[in-house]
Amino acid sequence: MVKVGIVGGTGYTGVELLRLLARHPQAELVAITSRKEAGMPVADMFPNLRGHIDLRFCDPQEAGLDECDVVFFATPNGIAMQQARELLATGVRVIDLAADFRIQDIEVWQKWYGMEHACADLVAQAVYGLPEVNREQIKTARLIANPGCYPTAVQLGFLPLLEAGLVDERYLIADAKSGVSGAGRKAEVGALFAEAGDNFKAYAASGHRHLPEISQGLTRYAGTPVGLTFVPHLTPLIRGIHATLYARLTGEADFQALFEQRYQHEPFVDVLPFGAHPETRSVRGANTCRIALHRPQGGDMLVILAAIDNLVKGASGQAVQNMNIMFGLPETLGLELIGLLP
Ligand SMILES: NC(=O)C1=CN([C@@H]2O[C@H](COP(=O)(O)OP(=O)(O)OC[C@H]3O[C@@H](n4cnc5c(N)ncnc54)[C@H](OP(=O)(O)O)[C@@H]3O)[C@@H](O)[C@H]2O)C=CC1
Ligand SMILES: CC(=O)N[C@@H](CCC(=O)OP(=O)(O)O)C(=O)O
């Protein structure tokens, strides 16, 4: 059994980790932290976990995290980087769901995240936890930078085209929409029902902190710097990300076959028939990314549609997928979930 600790058990990614790990046949939850709720039974806060988890939240300082095999940080940006070194030194493996270890260029990270990095040297050791590109490195990783939600959908959508060198990498467009749970569980006016319900808007159109993360990945797959326009939107959904991606073609190929072959052995990427429209509800609660291709009017633009659940393949499901790979477990263990439709 893999002994698991979770720092930040009361946020949306934290409770999603709990939902997945409670039923995971090889995971034993030993510590779940919350500073504000220390002492409270987990199932009192999250009634869906009644009968599945009988632990109480505990303070991070008293959690005994160094006795775990792996610790997930489901905390705001800037927390894992303060504790990772100590945990790694005691042999604990770390999976950070925040962005502390995602960007290799520390100056770029500091600019976008507005803080000084506490352990820049560890960033070089971290493996970016997108199994579809880094599976081999994840197997032996001690520190995983779990990808952001938008970056997961956008990178999986562009990946086969950039690897094949069939699009103009200077003018990529990612038009992405997220549900409100992407903003986390903290109280925020913009996430109130009366603000986000029955409304639709773009935000951070001039620059979102996921831009450097996505660009870093796409540049690697293309083998040359990419030009990306990324505009996120807030939709009145609770869960889900839908990305509409645009790329100008520079060569001809059977694009459908290209995507199907690239993802044929990937358990969590589903390439739909050409011309289909993936829906967020088809992946709600599932660790799946559904992708479909379109070529409007047979022109030279390829449109890729990608849908994920931001809390599952976009966060906690992917984190458990990474744990499975790190501990030599079947990659799909505890993750064979079907989307909740309707
Ligand atoms: N929501 C999403 O769709 C996605 C989120 N992420 C990332 O995952 C991380 C968690 O997100 P989310 O669950 O939405 O966040 P929330 O804001 O909902 O939850 C944050 C959790 O962290 C704990 N926490 C806050 N500050 C500290 C601290 N200083 N030390 C220890 N624990 C702390 C909180 O509990 P307490 O204050 O009681 O200790 C709480 O349990 C974030 O970095 C986010 O960017 C990544 C992909 C998708
Ligand atoms: C809808 C919404 O607000 N989404 C969040 C992104 C989700 C996320 O948590 O990503 P990180 O892990 O990289 O922080 C945002 O745009 O800030």
UniProtKB/TrEMBL annotation:
It catalyses: N-acetyl-L-glutamate 5-semialdehyde + phosphate + NADP(+) = N-acetyl-L-glutamyl 5-phosphate + NADPH + H(+). The keyword Oxidoreductase applies. SMART domains: Semialdhyde_dh. GO terms for biological process: L-arginine biosynthetic process. The active site is at 149. Catalyzes the NADPH-dependent reduction of N-acetyl-5-glutamyl phosphate to yield N-acetyl-L-glutamate 5-semialdehyde. It comes from Sulfuriferula plumbiphila. This is N-acetyl-gamma-glutamyl-phosphate reductase. Belongs to the NAGSA dehydrogenase family. Type 1 subfamily. One of its GO terms (cellular component) is cytoplasm. Keywords: Amino-acid biosynthesis, Arginine biosynthesis, Cytoplasm, NADP, Oxidoreductase. Its EC number is 1.2.1.38. GO terms for molecular function: N-acetyl-gamma-glutamyl-phosphate reductase activity; NAD binding; NADP+ binding. It is found in: Cytoplasm. InterPro entries: AGPR, AGPR_AS, AGPR_dimerisation_dom, AGPR_type-1, NAD(P)-bd_dom_sf, Semialdehyde_DH_NAD-bd. The keyword Acyltransferase does not apply. Its main location: cytoplasm. Transmembrane segments: none annotated. Pathway: Amino-acid biosynthesis; L-arginine biosynthesis; N(2)-acetyl-L-ornithine from L-glutamate: step 3/4. Pfam families: Semialdhyde_dh, Semialdhyde_dhC_1. Residues 3-141 form the Semialdehyde dehydrogenase NAD-binding domain. It is an enzyme of class 1 (oxidoreductase).
